[in-house]
Amino acid sequence: MATLIKSVIRNFRNIELQELEFSPNINCISGGNGEGKTNLLEAIWYLSMTKSPFTTSDRFNYRYGSDSFAIGGTYMMHGGVSSKFSIQVNGAGKTMKRDDKTYSRISEHIGILPIVMVSPSDTAMVSESGEERRKFTNSVLSQMDRNYLSGIQQYTKVLLQRNKILKDGITDDVLLSTFDDMLSSLAGPVFERRAEFCRNITPIVRKYYGQISGEKEEVGIEYRSDLSDGRLSDILRENRARDAALKYTAAGIQRDDFIFTMDGHPIRRHGSQGQQKSFLVALKFAQYELMKSNCGFPPMLLLDDLFDKLDMERVSNLLKMVADSDFGQIFLSDSNKVRIKGIVDSITSDRAYFETKGGVFTRNE
């Protein structure tokens, strides 16, 4: 497993400069709202995924008055070998290094430091469009399958080219057929991998949801895709006139969705806030189990404000899951220092406590 031993963070969000050493087991971060708890977890995620889990533009991660940031980490890797990773971001782009050697492509790093994050922002997967659910699926599969990541990147590139042709009013059948065939060949494996993912993760989500909720409801996930009706190339040819009128490609895996259900109904409409939060936690724990099986070791687990919107029965069930399972390194944030200490001390003596104020972190034993 990849265990974060030490990190150095400079000019990230409200963190000016921090060097922190962590427990290989559970790390607890407490502090008031806006003091930097989530910023630390975001920095750890960034070093694994080379992007923020929350924002699409890196400039929003610059500390006020800065035009760049840097994150570094020393990890004990699977097999007992230590490695140093660093990423520097500025207006010119990103530079990602492992042991002072620059990656030729940043995407080569994805999956090296597997990670799972549970955060309040996960509610967007229930309340927002299918794009949020596709982002989640892509994040999971990209860490487990390098070919999937490459396929998504190539598909997106070809899709942008086809959309530009349509926007420019070009309707040449031979040219469009070429792009249709290229998209179809790239979309097929993605469709199959997403369908397999949905089949694999659904029973695990049900298991964890049952443990959290006390078996009160049954949840599910339904995968919906245009490719369920046939090859994408055939679908695009049949709808070429529509695409020409719209001036963009209206069918394809970029429209895929994953419908979350509870007792056969969309959880978005029929689930309470607590039920939705329980489902999302179950989803992330299922992700964790799949990635652990795929990697052969547990990924890092970030739990940001985990207890928000959960009653004490569900919190108790959730903590029992963590205590009874073979989890790896965990980072847990909560605004209530007394609560988090009481909970974690009951689970393990191998832990570290940090308190933050204004982006400054203090370790307390």
How is this fold's topology laid out?
Layout: E1 3-12, E2 15-21, E3 26-30, H1 37-49, E4 68-76, E5 82-90, E6 93-98, E7 101-102, E8 115-118, H2 124-127, H3 130-144, H4 146-167, H5 173-213, E9 219-224, H6 232-238, H7 240-246, E10 257-262, E11 265-266, H8 267-270, H9 273-295, E12 300-304, H10 312-324, E13 330-334, H11 337-345, E14 351-357, E15 360-364
Parallel strand pairs: 3-13, 3-14, 8-12, 12-13
Antiparallel strand pairs: 1-2, 1-4, 4-5, 5-6, 6-7, 9-10, 10-11, 14-15
Helix pairs in contact: 3-4, 4-5, 5-6, 5-9, 5-10
Account of the protein in words:
- This protein is α/β, with parallel strands linked by helices and 365 residues long.
- It is 43% helix and 24% strand.
- The chain contains 11 helices and 15 strands.
- It has helices at 37-49, 124-127, 130-144, 146-167, 173-213, 232-238, 240-246, 267-270, 273-295, 312-324, 337-345, and strands at residues 3-12, 15-21, 26-30, 68-76, 82-90, 93-98, 101-102, 115-118, 219-224, 257-262, 265-266, 300-304, 330-334, 351-357, 360-364.
- The strands form 3 sheets. Strands 2-1-4-5-6-7 form a 6-stranded antiparallel β-sheet, covered by helices on one side. The protein has a 6-stranded mixed β-sheet with strand order 8-12-13-3-14-15, with helices on both faces. It has a 3-stranded antiparallel β-sheet with strand order 9-10-11.
- The protein is globular and about 70 Å long.
- The two termini are 25 Å apart.
- 38% of the residues are buried.
